[in-house]
Design brief:
This protein is α/β, with parallel strands linked by helices. 23% of the residues lie in helices and 40% in strands. The protein is globular and about 90 Å long.
């Protein structure tokens, strides 16, 4: 007898199998589409983040360029270049412009400001090569005290980043153990040491405060201070010793230093010295080893450059470092663990190791920039987008 097999269950099995295959396919497609959309969203977010970062960087470049216009105007007022003061007396307004590799700058000085004597308004407009624009509006007043930048252990004319361990300490009277930055202050780590006499001043904010510093000694959002100009012509005219070309200073030629030593070139220095002097270099200064005073209570040395001061290795320095330029920021860099008995004043401060500064002001009496000379100093500072 022929056996009859019911094919219904087999067909139903195949149908269920086909249905399941179709469901798996649909689920796989749905997952693939979800991943594709998620990936697209992540790419768009990343691209948007990069765009915002690029925009922020370009806006920062525009504001930095505009700041150079403010610096140039204050310098002209300070040095009375281009008969600026006579022009302001006659017309009440002075305007000028200049170009740099980063873009162009135009600025206008109006004096007096709002009828207030010994005051002025400075507007500086900048346009970068990429077309980004910025304006800075500054109200400045005529002041005779221009030594503030020399009254603390560190003065930085830009955002300041302090890496690793280190410390700032005042002198025996408890003064000078301060940090001042025209920009945000960033401590990379929490091993930096200050004292209860120390203060922090920043035109922006600080991300951390050493435990020893009282809350009342932390000042954020303060008005920027202007660094006094290094008048190279003046220093050359009063120099007691002049060098044409690069010079290396060692123990042999650093005894009984006095007055102003003017170097038309670069300087390399390391060794022990006696005397009191200012070394002014038109080029960079490289500290290649310890620069120490034989009699720390009396001897002092000022290293001054409108280009850069570079400290190499684990180095101890007795004296003042001053690096400042109106056009291109002058940087002070330290590549090792640096200890300074004196102060550090610079447009830019970069450290890759620790830096420890014990404030000393034995350079008083030496012809520092701005000493004994009145200067226009900002009392308000406003950034504007244009």
């Amino acid at each position: 007898m022929r056996r009859i097999i019911d094919a219904g269950p087999i067909r139903r099995f195949h149908r269920r199998l086909a249905t399941r295959r179709g469901s798996v396919f649909l689920l796989a497609m749905a997952a693939l589409i979800t991943l594709l959309l998620l990936g697209t969203s992540l790419v768009q977010s990343s691209m948007q983040g990069l765009s915002w970062a690029s925009t922020d960087r370009r806006q920062a470049e525009a504001f930095a360029l505009a700041e150079s216009g403010i610096d140039m105007a204050i310098t002209k007022l300070y040095e009375d270049y281009d008969n600026i003061n006579a022009t302001l007396i006659a017309t009440g307004t002075y305007s000028d412009s200049f170009s740099l590799t980063q873009g162009s700058v135009s600025y206008t000085v109006t004096a007096p400001y709002a009828g207030i004597s010994e005051s002025c308004l400075i507007l500086s407009d900048a346009t970068t090569w990429a077309g980004h624009q910025a304006r800075i509006r500054v109200v400045a007043a005529y002041q005779s005290d221009t030594s503030r930048v020399f009254e603390g252990a560190i003065f930085c004319d830009s955002p300041l980043e302090l890496n690793g361990a280190g410390g700032i300490y005042p002198d025996a009277s408890g003064t000078g153990g301060d940090i001042y930055a025209n920009g945000d202050i960033t401590f990379n780590g929490t091993d930096f040491t200050m004292t209860a006499d120390g203060s922090i001043y920043t035109t922006g904010t600080t991300n951390w405060v050493p435990d020893e510093v009282p809350a009342t000694h932390v000042h954020e959002g303060v008005a920027p201070l202007v660094m006094p100009v290094i008048d190279m012509d003046y220093y050359e005219s009063i120099a007691t010793t002049k060098y044409n070309g690069n010079v290396t200073f060692t123990n042999a030629n650093m005894q009984n230093l006095t007055g102003v030593i003017y170097v038309k070139g670069n300087v390399t220095i390391a060794g022990s010295y006696t005397g009191q002097a200012v070394i002014v270099a038109t080029g960079r200064i490289t500290v290649s080893g310890d620069v120490t005073a034989t009699n720390p209570d009396d001897d002092t040395l000022v290293l001054m450059s409108p280009k850069a001061v570079k400290v190499v290795g684990n180095t101890t320095i007795h004296g003042l470092i001053y690096a400042h330029s109106l056009i291109d920021d002058a940087a002070s860099t330290a590549s090792g663990n640096t200890t300074i008995y004196g102060a550090l004043v610079s447009d830019v401060v970069r450290t890759t190791g620790s830096i420890e500064i014990h404030y000393r002001d034995v350079w008083k009496g030496l012809p520092l920039p701005g000493i004994g000379k009145t200067q226009w100093a900002p009392v308000s500072w406003q950034f504007l987008y244009i």
